[in-house]
Structure formats: structure tokens, C-alpha cells
Amino acid sequence: MESIPKSRAQRRRDDQPRHDLAGKLVQVPVPKLARLPLDDELRDAVTFAAARTEHGARRRAIRHLATVLRTLDEDSFVALEQAVDSLGTNGGAVVTPVGTAGAGASSGVTPGLLVGEDSSLGADPAVEGWIANLLADEAGTLTRARESFPAVDLTRLRQLVRNWRREAQANEVLRSAAAKSATAAAPGRSPEAGGPESVAKTKPNLKPKHRARTRLIGYLNELMSMDHRGRGE
């Protein structure tokens, strides 16, 4: 007995779960992708779609991601769907893949601090995605940057990342010092015991610096802008 071909409406209904999951995947913070059962093709499709900022380009990339999801068997699809749902909105800690270069641990800096060190700087979410990727897997992300942005200067990008890590590490030290100063300046402490008066006399400049981060964001914005012009988006 011949099977009856599915109507277009039925095919769309069948594909809806994959489109829904594709939409969820692009919202997953990049460091958390390491917690998901993604092969290289699927991971690249997720990263590419998440990096698209123009509405039409992002929609096409998500549609492509849904197509890639069709290659999964039912068990693999359900396992991935459950893994994504288990993350929640803020679920789980930032995970650094074992053996990858450049995650915050190697520089002594908390990974989460590096990714969102100062939200007031207003980096585009797609740029934040690239920054998080550089944190989780610098070598792999530099390779993808070379593929995504033909004009990229990898030496410059690598140096900007290195400077950013050093700056973030210094800022973390400053924040720690500021917290200690605030504790020492608590009401009731005498000058002899390191109270407000003595702290005021010796208080260092504890203002964090963001020059390196700003330069990294600027270069990534420049690369993405050239990419959009090149694609005619």
C-alpha cells in the first residue's frame, strides 16, 4: 500500500518542533553550548545563526539550523531538546571545554566576568557571542573567524584578546581591593584600626579600565559590518 504524501501544512507542523528548538538554541549563551550534545556541523550552525544581527539574515540562518536539526534521529533530537530546556534562562555555570586554549582559567580570571565584564559598554549580543566563543575556545573560534570574515587580521585579533584578558584580570584585582576597602571603611571602625579616616588617606585608584575590551568590541563590530556589506544584507 502506497503511503499518502504529506501536505505542505502537515510538513510544516512536523517541522515546527525543529524550528522551535532552533530558536531556542540561538538564545543559549555561547559558553553553555559546551553542555549540549552538539556535533561540529550543528555547533557551527548554531554559532553562525546566533552571530547574525540583521533580521532577514538571522531568520535564514535559523531556518538553515532547523534543516540541520532534521538530520538528527528522534532520540538524539529529544535528548538535545531536553538538554536545552534543562539550561533554563540562567541555568548552569559557564563551562570551559577541557583542553581548549584561552578560557578564563588560564589567565586566572573568572570566565563569567570576562564575558559580561561591564554591560554598560553596550556590546551587540552577536559581538558578545564572539567574545564568549573566544573565551571558551580561542583556537577554534579564530579558525571560524577566518572562515566567517575574509578580511580578519588574526594576529591583531589574537593580540586584542590577550590584552582584554590582562585588563579583565587587573579589573578583578581592583574589584577585590575595592571590596576590602569598603569593608574597612564600615561605620564604627576607628582610624587606628583602619577606619574611614585612615582609608580615605590611602585609598588607591580603584576605577576599572575598559580600553582593551572596547578595542576588541570595536574590531569585532568592524568585522561584522564588513561581513554584512559583503553579503549585501
UniProtKB/TrEMBL annotation:
One of its GO terms (molecular function) is rRNA binding. Residues 1-24, 178-210 are annotated as: Disordered. The keyword Repressor does not apply. Residues 12-22 have a biased composition (Basic and acidic residues). It comes from the Bacteria. The keyword Cytoplasm applies. Transmembrane segments: none annotated. GO terms for biological process: ribosome biogenesis. InterPro entries: DarP (IPR006839), DarP_sf (IPR023153). One of its GO terms (cellular component) is cytosol. Keywords: Cytoplasm, Ribosome biogenesis, RNA-binding, rRNA-binding. This is DUF615 domain-containing protein. The lineage of its organism: Bacteria, Candidatus Eiseniibacteriota.
